[in-house]
Amino acid sequence: MRSGYLLLETSASHPGLVRLFIAESLPPLPGPAADPELRHAVRFEDITVARMHAHERLRRRLVDIDAGLYRAGALEAVAAVEAIDLSHRRAYLDPALATDPALEPAIATLIARRQRRDRLWEWVGMAALVLLLIKLLVGI
């Protein structure tokens, strides 16, 4: 388990794509008109697991796994990373995204979706236990 930063950047040379990658330290914050532009940086205690969760959330938008390119907007990718259910600390968020009123609802939607899915699997597990107990008691 190694800690590190999950970074998200966009580039004018790849419109409509975001790049997710990991780094051991926070790179210098971008200046004006930087390309590629760092949009979001988050520190995780287990960066490999965090990257796997981010990929899981954006997998249907994958363009190039080696380059970490996904066909998604910066807001959608930031929400996917922020909704990861691991302990994390936001190190940087692009001011344009931070003031976007759609960011918090997007994060809340993803968290609620994950919680509904978790509850469903809990109910499936409970139903399986009940069926096993019935089978044990009845002796079928």
Structure, described:
The structure is a single chain. This protein has 140 residues and is of the alpha+beta class. Helix content is 44%, strand content 23%. It is built from four helices and six strands, in the order βββαββαβαα. Strands 4-5-2-1-3-6 form a six-stranded antiparallel beta sheet. Helix 2 (74-82) crosses helix 4 (103-138). The protein starts with a strand and ends with a helix. The relative contact order is 0.15.
SSE diagram, text form:
Blueprint: E1 4-10, E2 18-23, E3 37-44, H1 47-58, E4 62-64, E5 69-70, H2 74-82, E6 88-93, H3 95-98, H4 103-138
Antiparallel strand pairs: 1-2, 1-3, 2-5, 3-6, 4-5
Biggest beta sheet summary? 6 strands, antiparallel
How do the SSEs run, as a string of H and E? EEEHEEHEHH
The beta-strand count equals 6
What percentage of amino acids are in beta strands? 15-25%
Strand order of the largest sheet: 4-5-2-1-3-6
Mean pLDDT score: 90
Q: What class do helices, strands and sheet pairing give?
A: alpha+beta
Uncertain regions spanning at least 5 consecutive residues:
none
Using only C-alpha atoms, the radius of gyration works out to: 19 Å
Distance between the termini: 46 Å
Morphology: elongated
Helix run count: 4
> What proportion of the residues is helical, as a percent range?
40-55%
